[in-house]
Amino acid sequence: MIGIMHAGKTPIGHLCFIGKNHGCFTGEHIRKMRLLLGPFTMAMANMLQFKRVSDFQQKLYAEKSSLQEELRQLQDSSLIGAQGGLLETMKVVEQLKDRETPVLILGETGTGKELIADTIQKMSPRADKPFIKINCGAIPESLIDSELFGYEKGAFTGATRNHPGRFEQADGGTLFLDEVGELSPSAQVHLLRVLESNEVDKLGCSTPVSVDVRIIAATNRKVENMLSRGAFREDLFFRLFVFPVYVPPLRERTQDIPALIHFFVQRICARLSISPPPALHPDSLPRLMEYSWPGNVRELENLVERAVILSKGEYLNPEKYLPQDHGWYLKPGEQKGYLEELIDQQIDAKLNGDQVLAADKGSVSGKVIQDGIRSPVRSLDDIVREGIEEVLGYCRGRVNGPQGAAELLKVNASTLRNKMRKLGIDPGAWRSSRN
């Protein structure tokens, strides 16, 4: 025996009684069920309403925690090197004081581009207005439009409420587009339209929403290479490339390393309740200054935290956890030549092998004869696999970013990962062997 519970015209549940025998329910049972249906319906409606309120509160708490964390980072952030290795960068940034010019921050991953964006925001006329950040590379392509531009309730399955996009949230203030070079071509088109019209087309909304937003963008990509490949729109680039700010890599400002280490040690020890903080061993600094720091300041911070956790005495020896390969310890300007020489050697080896194959091709079909011994011709996949594995070995399994395999092989990182997946190559095998 089943009774349907309704909230208005919408069914919200069923009240069901199950008997042991067929036909065991009488008219009296039906009457009593009808009497119970009202209270049960009210209880079910209240329960569903409480669940909706509870879910909404959890989302509010999550957003509040996120905003509090961003505020904490803004308050705790220190721009180490403003009077050292970042002096020239800060001179450029100072020219943006009290201006609302769009800015494009360029620099390798881990150099502190977000801190530069924070500094630019603090000295802008919109310093007390919303400052919204979004990492374009961390959001799936299918969700980037809804995150940037928002959507209306009912725009798609699961859209149970109106959602303002990051542009609407930043209205009157500033929007920081981190890793803007990761945007897909379609997202670039939509972003360009917003920058040109100052209007946002929300999903499920027929009327554009006007916005007033200053853009600060950042990328670790070499945009000129992306333009030549057609991976980034020229018209969007020139919309963003109004005032460029270059953040040098750590290997070009090694004078900041001691101050950075001191800052990280103090912060990490405070977070881990370690007292007193260990001091850097005097013999550590020379090797730290020689290292090329492909991960820049972020890599240095992670290395310091590891050293703090593993430290057993009063001195800190982070240099013990650096790679042992000499290729990681080249002076600025030397590394490029070293990599080019390595790649040239690999190409020469491949060409020499191909010449031997071409010379003996007519002697035995499909075979190469060396000293009377037949050996099978390697497939193209084998040659490609060997080349990728050699570069991964040099890069210690790094695929993306500066000094990564994709950059050295001059291919898109996604293309390289797809090829590695087809060939059964796991980059983690090289990362796990890193010293």
How would you summarize what this structure contains?
Helices cover 47% and strands 13% of the residues. It is an alpha/beta fold and 435 residues long.
Task: Describe the SSE topology.
Blueprint: E1 2-7, E2 10-16, H1 27-76, H2 87-94, E3 103-106, H3 113-122, E4 131-135, H4 144-149, E5 150-151, E6 163-164, H5 166-169, E7 174-178, H6 185-197, E8 199-200, E9 209-210, E10 214-219, H7 223-229, H8 234-240, E11 243-246, H9 257-272, E12 279-280, H10 285-290, H11 296-310, E13 315-316, H12 334-359, E14 367-370, E15 373-376, H13 380-395, H14 405-409, H15 413-423, H16 428-431
Parallel strand pairs: 3-10, 3-11, 4-7, 7-10, 12-13
Antiparallel strand pairs: 1-2, 5-6, 8-9, 14-15
What keywords describe this structure?
alpha/beta; two-stranded antiparallel sheet; 47% helix; 435 residues
Explain what this protein looks like in three dimensions.
This protein is of the alpha/beta class and 435 residues long. Helix content is 47%, strand content 13%. The chain has 16 helices and 15 strands. The chain has a 5-stranded parallel beta sheet with strand order 4-7-10-3-11. It has a two-stranded antiparallel sheet with strand order 1-2. β14 and β15 form a beta hairpin. The chain starts with a strand and ends with a helix.
